[in-house]
Amino acid sequence: MTYSHIVLDVDSTLSGIEGIDWLASRIGGDALGQIAEMTSAAMRGDTPLEAVYAERLACVRPTRSDLAALAEAYIAAIAPGARDAIALLMSRGVRVMLVSGGLRDAILPLAAHVGIAPSDVHAVPLRFTVAGNYDGYDTSSLLCRSGGKVEVVERVAPVRTTVAVGDGITDAELKPIVARFIAFTGFALNDRVVALADDVITSFVDLPPLVLS
What we know:
It contains ten helices and eight strands. It is of the alpha/beta class. It has a six-stranded parallel β-sheet. The protein has a two-stranded antiparallel ribbon with strand order 4-5.
């Protein structure tokens, strides 16, 4: 089958960090453990994403400078082989998109690093004060809640020829609508996600052969 689009998750897929947990690590103390557990519960599917999204951001309250630092961390922790794999896929006419519940301002530089246009980045925008301090997030974003990726992908990609790749339960929710769902376990292993996947890969080196064959 010929695939026209690939939808990639970002945290623990394209990059080896969870953005909100990384931001919490800059605060330290009890916040890190609490936020990491909320993130894990949401990615496992034990807790709906919308039940923890606002609470995590309220704990961290990232500034513009925090997001700039996170952008650098995303790039430093990029999955081995990802940049070359994306370049190869795009050279063969496959459109690569990022669909993430992560923070758009921090993801955009990572997207640029791998050659993905801003228009193909779907993530959650934050609001800031004039001084660059946290002033909330776009609560209307579909990506703040469970099932949101399904609605976004249905709007932006031809699902019958789309491959989805990710590590979390919000990625696995795409399985019923896309042509192929690939679980990425190079950074995190989620048994529920693996059980739902059509294929499982541990490296981006393995992605082009599955998509282009």
